[in-house]
Amino acid sequence: MEPMDIVGKSKEDASLPKAIESKVLLGCLNSTMTKIIKEMLPADVRVARDAQDLLIECCVEFINLVSSESNEVCSREDKRTIAPEHVLKALEVLGFGEYIEEVYAAYEQHKLETMDSLKGGKWSNGAEMTEEEAAAEQQRMFAEARARMNGGAAGPPKQPDINPSLES
């Protein structure tokens, strides 16, 4: 029997239609990309809205291209789930081999940060981050990624502040 929500519809029926989910995801991508574009440029440089839209469309197209090729790599291996190795192979097939080392390093860093957060961070006791904490963590991760992209080291990852009210 399927779990039911308060109005008697199954959770699948209550989920957003795929077209709306895509628009929500694109909205998140747009705001994230807008922020990255503004942060990467000097303060006195402005970007025309149509140029910004074009950059975002390029990002979306790149994601579609890599996703599609990753799916093909996965299918050729008779797998049903795209793994990180499939994405790296897709980058190579598409001619982006020079980025594989950086992408893999970023992936490894993400795994370490995620594992650290799950083991000893706020999530270890079931508590969730507030929206402000999540935004601050996202900004920290963006700064580290920019530093890596610009050839500088970002230094050790900052540990999230522990909320005293969550400690037992």
Automatic annotation (TrEMBL):
<dbReference type="InterPro" id="IPR044255">
    <property type="entry name" value="Dr1-like"/>
</dbReference>
<feature type="domain" description="Transcription factor CBF/NF-Y/archaeal histone">
    <location>
        <begin position="32"/>
        <end position="91"/>
    </location>
</feature>
<protein>
    <recommendedName>
        <fullName>Transcription factor CBF/NF-Y/archaeal histone domain-containing protein</fullName>
    </recommendedName>
</protein>
<dbReference type="GO" id="GO:0046982">
    <property type="term" value="F:protein heterodimerization activity"/>
</dbReference>
<feature type="region of interest" description="Disordered">
    <location>
        <begin position="147"/>
        <end position="168"/>
    </location>
</feature>
<dbReference type="InterPro" id="IPR009072">
    <property type="entry name" value="Histone-fold"/>
</dbReference>
<keyword id="KW-0539">Nucleus</keyword>
<dbReference type="GO" id="GO:0005634">
    <property type="term" value="C:nucleus"/>
</dbReference>
<dbReference type="Pfam" id="PF00808">
    <property type="entry name" value="CBFD_NFYB_HMF"/>
</dbReference>
<dbReference type="InterPro" id="IPR003958">
    <property type="entry name" value="CBFA_NFYB_domain"/>
</dbReference>
